Model the fold of this input.
Amino acid sequence: MMVPQYTTEPIKADSAAVKKIEEYTGVKLEMNWVVGAAYQEKLNATIASGTMPKVLIVLDNKQANIVNGARSGMFWEIGGYIKDYPNLSKLNPQILNNISVDGKLYALPRTRPVSREGIMIRKDWLDNLGLQPPKTTDELYNVLQAFTNKDPDKNGKNDTFGLSDNGNAFIDMAVFFGAPVNWGVQGGKMVPAFTTPQYLEAMKFMKRLYSEKLMNQDFLIVKDGYVANINQGKAGMVINSAVDGITSALYADLKKLNPNAVLDAITGVKGPNGEFATGSPGFAGTFMFPKSSVKTEQDLKDMLHFFDKMTDQPMIDLTLYGVEGNTYTLENGIPKINTDLYNNEINPLNQLMVKLGLFGPKKGDTPLESKWKQILVENEKKAVFDPTVPYISATNVEKGAQLDKQITDARNKFIIGEIDEAEWKSQIESWRKNGGDKITEEFTAEYAKTHK
Done:
């Protein structure tokens, strides 16, 4: 198989972990590691050449050459097979629908949680101010105001603010207010999220946070600095992926600065229209099986058997911890992991997993990690999903990125006070005329085919 490589060196073919996989699955692995930054280019060249490995990891299965390949019979359609495999048959139907092409399944997903968003908050600041974690958008505002104006760190200085953001918090905020994720469905027609009144209400809320300096004023240009605001004791809240909580080393510098600092993880912020969480497609790339190299139905079944076995708990545990005596040792029943060895010899193997163990409970989890993982479970019950993910709009492929940027820029200008509501509505009309209405029509037509 061809595999993206995000570590300095690829895993050796005779590493302890690879040997474990081969022993457990009964498969001999031949991995062609391709540097991550060059992977897409190499993938396109490989497909064009017609000489393909048995397994292709495809990062975007809606790109034109992949869709055309699926439609022309280049890849196996596997929808009728996965019911025969104990693990693959239990894959989330929503995720399988999201990776489908024309309603058919040509791939296995590299699954991820379908709702990963949450809030990281300074619990010690809440305690200092006698506040509870916010459960509504009104309470969220009150907490951010208190974090900014009421000296939550008790140092006698006006040197804190509420929300640290790098431009990504808005989508979650819009969902809190009841807006769709990217697109919604009304009366059988696709509706862009930014045309809804709930989206505008969220914009007004964020504008209020910005104008009252309850959030960082550089949120449009800051990159990783939004984490530094937490670590330096400047800010009290981040709205971001729950993975930030699971990999809590991201905030390790805060403890070095202030050993008494306490971070907590929360979800369940209720807006004016109910309680919602941002849903995601639930996958990070797919595995596809070219007919030119997977020549027979039995060959395909062998491929599916391998990935089914890779979803057994012993293989998930392997990618969580590694090999005992190599990447970890047991101390009181808890794996003590050699981080450098793990990163070099185990972490890259996550590229081969249909299901990642990272998001489930593991031995040695901290209380914060356990709480974040529970948030992932709770979010799934109230997640709002983008209904266009399974569909292809030719106009969106051609113009979508440009049009999205136009809307994002206008939204940001509204939040920082550079344009008013009338100009915002003018930008929406421009979006419609420059291809947005065509995208809406095409997505609606695709939706109608599968919802007759």
Summary: The chain has a mean pLDDT of 94.
